[in-house]
Amino acid sequence: MGSAPDFPRLPPSGISVIIVGCGFAGLTAAIECDRKGHSVILFDKAPELAPLGDIISFGQNSSRFFAKWPGVPEALDAIVHRSEVFHFHDWTGRFVTTQDFSEEHRRLGGRVNGHRGEIHQILLAHVRARGIEVNLGCKVVAYEEDETGAAVVLEDGRRFGADLVLAAEGVRSKGRELVLGVEDRPLPSGYAVFRTWFPADELRRNPTTRYLVEHGDSHNGWIGQDVHFLAAAIKGGSVMSWVCTHKDDAAIEESWQFPGRVEDVLKVLEGDWDPVVLELVKATPPDRLFDYKLVFRDPLPTFVSPRSRTVLIGDAAHPFLPTSIQGASQAMEDGVVMAACLDRAGKGNVREAVKVWENIRYDRVHRIQQTGITTREQWHKADWDAIWKNPESMHLQREDWILGFDAEEDAYARYDEIRESLPQEVPVA
Ligand SMILES: Cc1cc2nc3c(=O)[nH]c(=O)nc-3n(C[C@H](O)[C@H](O)[C@H](O)COP(=O)(O)OP(=O)(O)OC[C@H]3O[C@@H](n4cnc5c(N)ncnc54)[C@H](O)[C@@H]3O)c2cc1C
């Protein structure tokens, strides 16, 4: 399938890219490669990409990408969460502080918060509108490469080759075997999240929960000892999404997402938890509740295969804890920077582009990954005497070096300098 003509793109670069995985990493990489004139083809093992999930937040550092994709900002505008403030409470319901994001938005631009599945569908529709080939129901079972290119092998035996393969297949990445030379499994983080998203009609009828949904969108958090509970009313208060992060040491050998049980959530919230929270949980339709074990891993030594023709991006390279609020944003930055590096390098220098890309991405992504732990500890191990003296110490750290960053501009600005600094033995063909 050829590229659709009605989107601005650079002239054809002659570089072919295979992307495995249609999550936020894969879709962004595909759009950006298309923008830069590379030819791209996507594979995903899922037979369909259904609009599943709960609320997700894209910081200004990734929201800026949406603005470059014709039609996407308008589509997002129809579905995004509109609250500018976040109210913190302790677990019993005592109000602690309000974090107001309006100044941040004036300074750095807006963020995009909304239903994960709906935002994902908007990006997928944009990928298709660009004419990019999307192959669903295609599980990649093997990665291969030599000095001149890379290939993927599908479960049905078909083999596809390209100048570069991006393995964007999430935490259970098969591509990691080629990159690391050993089979590698994600580790439990010691935490899990109950997650849900459901129509708010019953909450509106209940006098205890009505205030959360009757004035449109709202955002509230309750912070307890090693547990936090976040609730967002979306779409004018017609839909409720909540997540509850708690300690969990279940094994994740085969799976890390299970149907959730209301009684299990209530067990986590035993004690003097706010009745508002308990009512929210009790109103949750059981078939809409998921128990998601959070996985983590120590930083990989590299994201790049031995011959620099296969690259891990997104969660395949660096799974994030939700408390960083940056996993999807960093997955998107990976794709944006790769497309720009390939543009700068040209077809004859794909492996050089990959090395420069890794150099640009590696430190930034790992520094930001750490913020997931910092925020979780800031909340879960809160010193409440100190918090009552300084309630704002509970606020999310919203740092300019993360949010005010333009990954595309930075990649173009630093490409030459980084290429010059690469060790001599790095191949340049
Ligand atoms: C509870 C929770 C809340 C979060 N909240 C936020 C937030 O607010 N903001 C934020 O930025 N991040 C958040 N994150 C993190 C974010 O969701 C992830 O970092 C991001 O979605 C990763 O995207 P990805 O494309 O790398 O991987 P995925 O979304 O996992 O996509 C991988 C794709 O690859 C496909 N695939 C897998 N194996 C194969 C194969 N062998 N062959 C073909 N296809 C394959 C899968 O079907 C899937 O479609 C949150 C995470 C969690 C768990």
Task: Supply database-style keywords.
429 residues; alpha/beta; FAD/NAD(P)-binding domain; D-Amino Acid Oxidase, Chain A, domain 2; five-stranded parallel beta sheet; 15 helices; binds flavin-adenine dinucleotide; FAD binding; FAD/NAD-bd_sf; oxidoreductase
Describe this structure in words.
With 429 residues, the protein is of the alpha/beta class. It folds into two domains: 16-82 and 113-186 and 299-377 and 397-421, FAD/NAD(P)-binding domain (3-Layer(bba) Sandwich); 187-296, D-Amino Acid Oxidase, Chain A, domain 2, CATH 3.30.9.30. It has helices at 24-35, 60-66, 72-77, 102-108, 116-129, 175-180, 201-205, 210-213, 262-268, 275-282, 327-345, 350-380, 384-389, 400-403, 407-421, and strands at residues 16-20, 39-43, 55-58, 85-90, 95-100, 112-115, 133-135, 140-146, 149-154, 159-162, 164-167, 187-199, 218-224, 227-234, 239-247, 257-259, 289-296, 310-312. Strands 5-4-13-14-15-12-17-16 form an eight-stranded mixed β-sheet. A five-stranded parallel β-sheet has the order 7-2-1-11-18. Strands 8-9-10 form a three-stranded antiparallel β-sheet, with no helix packed on it. The two termini are 28 Å apart. The chain binds flavin-adenine dinucleotide.
